[in-house]
Amino acid sequence: MSEQVLQYLSNNRDRLLEKLNGFLSIPSVSTDSVHNKDIKAAAEFLQTYLQDIGFENVEQLETKKHPLVYAEYNQAGPEAPTVLFYGHYDVQPVDPIDLWDSDPFKPEVRDGRLYARGSSDDKGQVFMHLAVFEAFMKTEGKLPINVKVCIEGEEEIGSENLYDMLHEKKELFDADFAVISDSGMVAKNQPTILYGLKGFTGIEITVNGPDHDMHSGMYGGAVRNPIMALSHILASMKNTDEVVTVEGFYDGVEPLSDEERKLIKEVPGEDYKETAGIPETASEKGYTAKEHTMARPTFEVNGIYGGYQGEGTKTIIPSSATAKITCRLVPGQDPDKIQSLLEEHVNKVAPSGVTVEVKKEKLSAKAYKVEPNNPLIQKAADSYTKAFGKETVYVRMGGSIPVVEWIEAIYQMPIVLLGFGTPDDRLHSPNESFPLDSYDKGMETLVYYYNSIKE
Amino acid sequence: MSEQVLQYLSNNRDRLLEKLNGFLSIPSVSTDSVHNKDIKAAAEFLQTYLQDIGFENVEQLETKKHPLVYAEYNQAGPEAPTVLFYGHYDVQPVDPIDLWDSDPFKPEVRDGRLYARGSSDDKGQVFMHLAVFEAFMKTEGKLPINVKVCIEGEEEIGSENLYDMLHEKKELFDADFAVISDSGMVAKNQPTILYGLKGFTGIEITVNGPDHDMHSGMYGGAVRNPIMALSHILASMKNTDEVVTVEGFYDGVEPLSDEERKLIKEVPGEDYKETAGIPETASEKGYTAKEHTMARPTFEVNGIYGGYQGEGTKTIIPSSATAKITCRLVPGQDPDKIQSLLEEHVNKVAPSGVTVEVKKEKLSAKAYKVEPNNPLIQKAADSYTKAFGKETVYVRMGGSIPVVEWIEAIYQMPIVLLGFGTPDDRLHSPNESFPLDSYDKGMETLVYYYNSIKE
């Protein structure tokens, strides 16, 4: 069954790549309103393509910002399951533009990689699904399963309108399971199933001291220093064993099973020391760097500022100091509860003589985890292995994809994270690229996978 | 003897004030080369005035930056002692200019205060000495003591060239004692003798982690966070009892005697809570805010920065974090030794996985303290009391005046700090002013004082 479809993809490779290049040439940067017409153009590209393939109810759902492209295919028959395919057509800004070796919106192949903003994240991976749908329609006259397509234009700016729409139009997006290709493999050509993602929450702490910067000679010894107070607060939240010391932080976290430790150990990991350029790694006591990164919650100070930051010396007691903190959470941790625990802790340990403000970050997400032995996951792993000729590894990732948590929370549907990116893709950075290997074998994987669902 | 001189000052009050206003109208801002011609004009004003009064060897000593105005008066006779009078004619910048209620370089009297940049720090106080010298010459035909005048143009930018000149031209500046009016009284019309100043040293700590900002999802749990490491380092240097916990920091510090505690208690202090707008003061355990501020060493973080400081969230582990630290020192503490202790401490407590850089600040000074019962001090106190009609208080100050330490170190001469400023003068800030009360009674004090020296 798959042979014909794969043959079609092979025969039409140049034309399809040309078509993808057209899609990548549209600078659909979502954060800058100067690109609103490009956003519109990218949405129209998708709308036209979906219509051409033979999708029904193809439309651009208007939001407060950028349209969401929606489409349905219901001709696989009432017996066939329905998949919700999610992706996004917006891209990150390209600054600093002078660090690009070629125009980010003039796709160019060098050394087997397709260089362009969005080639990996996520226009390239979205296109692969559509090309596979086209191939099925052109060869078999139908898709093996029913499909709902949801491709948004605001992923890089927080997916706020998608969040509302998922809640408001529940039937529209309801399906038997979801497939998302917006992630990567742990190494090039290493089939990788993401079976867990971390949740996310954050706070910003501001310590307010004197109502203006004070002369350190006149007031040193009388006025509490807000930077020092903030340092004491931060130091009380995580110790140098990398253990979070906020009471209740680990409550409900399931212990890491021997089986999972083994799974994690088998993942071909990257050399953190080399990638980060650090003398040695630092992980939670009792866990390896890979275990902590993939499966244990983290607490990071993302930024800090206060007082004089220029050249030389300015002898002041500054009026305030601020730190930005985000945590990555694992199953069993509720983001809202963690936020409250952090806030309570800060208020409890704040020294006298200063006032402390805790701002809770709005965006938060629960961790996501699916059982690796779920049949939908197993089929994906088998398809991967068949296409790439290598055993699939199962990975929990330190990152967060909020839409995954939302879909799970609202619909309780299994979500299959089929990512084809590689660690060298330079997402969000200059010289983003995507290996054509991944492009070809990834589409082959999708052909096997969509075919396998109905079996 | 003093009557005639005081009468002269009174008869010529308007003219002298007009002359001071001319001096204050010159924007002699030393930090900005755009004002180089104004610096020159201010130096020329002083040169001309000193020549007109009758000083000898009046000259502008050229330096690598701004000239130092030098003059001598040797006609008081070989029996009379020689005083080195130090002051500075440069001023701080005026930014933010829109917070000034009147032009900083168009002096204006409002509610008994003379508003202008430099009116208190230090052009106004320098002028008072020159006006008193003029009054002596015009009425008595001579000064009561021999005088060396040293008025520099780089005090607000670190006095670097004066430092070199004091070392290179020792004879030029040598004298029996020094008088400096570049400080203030603890309250308006409260005669105040500064008998101690703190020393000064500083370091800058930079914690380097990964060689670029890392994604907190991918690397959180493997890479030590430099901000967190810096917080642990800082928190280990001073505890929340405001005790410095760097080993050896207090070695050699003389304990505060009961007598001195009594002296400090008697100083009419300001309300730190009110001035700073803080809920309560925070001082070293076992000491009052006034004791700590005036007579105990301090440790302040003046500034901190690292990672993301913009709006919202950026989920990174930053590549580095930096803190600027300065300490105010008391007698018994050597600035170089303290700097080394701080550096050793930082290196000792730095956690693994990061590298730490300690930059030692160049400018440093030892603390200065003179015995309050030194006869030169006693005469100053008596003159003060006679002019202001109030007992003089003896104060140790938290601030540092490096030139005081240099003069003491090089010449071992007693230094009399006769300040006439008030806490409301807003030095270095918009709306700097100087009370005309202080101006009149201050000159009266100087007349009594210079007359009393020869007795």
TrEMBL record, chains A, B:
One Pfam family cited in the UniProt record for this chain: Peptidase_M20
Record domain Peptidase M20 dimerisation: where: 195-353
One GO MF term attached to the UniProt entry: metal ion binding
Signal peptide start and end residues: none
Entry-linked InterPro entries: Bact_exopeptidase_dim_dom, Cyt/Met_Dipeptidase, Peptidase_M20, Peptidase_M20_dimer
Gene Ontology biological process terms from the UniProt entry: proteolysis
Keyword terms of this UniProt record: Hydrolase, Metal-binding, Protease
PANTHER family: BETA-ALA-HIS DIPEPTIDASE (PTHR43270), SUCCINYL-DIAMINOPIMELATE DESUCCINYLASE (PTHR43270:SF12)
Designated name of the protein: Acetylornithine deacetylase/Succinyl-diaminopimelate desuccinylase
